[in-house]
Each structure stands twice: as C-alpha cells, then as structure tokens.
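Dear colleagues,

As part of the handover before I leave the project, I'm documenting each prediction I ran so the next person doesn't have to rerun anything. This entry is a single chain, and its sequence is reproduced below.
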Amino acid sequence: MTLNEDFQDVLEDFGEPTTYDKYQTSEFDTWSKHIPEPLIDFWRIYGWSSFLEGRLWLPNPHDFDPLMKLIFEGDSEIDHEKCHLIAYSAFGSLDIWSEQFQVIDIDLIQGWAFVDGLTDRKSADDSDRLATFPFLGDADTDYDTVDENGKPLFSRAVKKHGSLEPGECFGFFPAQVLGGGGNLDEIQRVKALEHFILLAELQPLTLMKWEGTTMVPVRQIGA
C-alpha cells in the first residue's frame, strides 16, 4: 500500500511519524463510510501516531467520542455522532472530520470553533483532497503555542516536564479562561481527554467565521 501524493508531501514537510499503536485491518474497515480513504490508508500504514516530537497527535478517534458528544450534543445543526477527532495539538487545538461539514477546527484555549462548511454554506469539496487537513499549518510554527511574551512553549515544557506520552497533552493551570497567563510556570502534563473535557466545560465554544481578515462570532456551539 502506498500513500497518495498529498500524504507523501506531508511526510516530506513533517517527517516520519512515531507510531504508538496499530490496529487490525478489519478494525479500519468500519471507517470507510465516515472518513476520507487516503486518511484510512495512512492509518493502515502508520496506525495511531505523533509528529513533530509530540506537537501533533493522530489518535484513535473513538477514544475521543465523549469529547465530541460533550461539545456538540444538543447543537441545532452539528451531529456529534458524525464528528470524529482526527488530530490534536499538544496544547488543545482539535482537528475534526465532520461527515456533514467536512473540516472543523477548534481552539479549546480560546474557545473558538470554525466550521466553514456551515458558516459559509460552501458546497462540499472532494473529501479525498481534504484528507490531509490536520497538516495545513506550518510545521515549524503552527503546532506550538506562545507565552505572554510571544516565546514558543513546547520545547521548554518538554524540558521541564518530559516528553508527552500517548494520550497526554500540556495544560495551563489556572486555565486562561480563569485568568491564567499562559506561561511556562503554569503548565502541567495531563491526560488529554480529561483536560480537553475540562476546557470544554469551562467555557462554551463560540462558532466563528472570517469576514475578510476579521474573525466574527456567529453563535454558541450547542445552541
């Protein structure tokens, strides 16, 4: 099995992933109606994995179904059962595949959600072409976060707390929504699912959209 050209480009830009678990082929077959096929091909080869020394993680989406339910259950338009978490960053940026609206991007620290297929009412793109959507950022800068002085935090957090293990992330205590400054001395190494659920419970997510170069709120997620 070979990866399509887009995923080959990903490996050139991001390097080889670190695989931490693999599943039987039969277990991937259940995804064929829900997830773009090139992404399933990637899973078949690399399994559940991480990139960029732990800055970006591609987990088993089923492990994060409780988070999808918490965020989207009760939403008037987004069906949580059709949302699958494909990737997350070490600090809580989520890349979700929606069977309804395709790509959903969530920043749990800021409390923002972007669902272009919903807010812009765009016609669906070729899902295979979108399969690499977690890798659209700059590998050198876009999978980290910065402190109040604009200094990247990931490498310093690893030096202080050690490398992240599968299923972990870095969290701020207190969370920024509770007045934290988002600095190194506020970082702890925690379980990703539990921390993401905590962040989602602390503040309602706001559906955002771009108008030119300005972000504007649309409505609360879950309403």
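Residues 5-144+192-220 form one domain. The chain is about 25% helix and 25% strand.

All the best with the project,
I.
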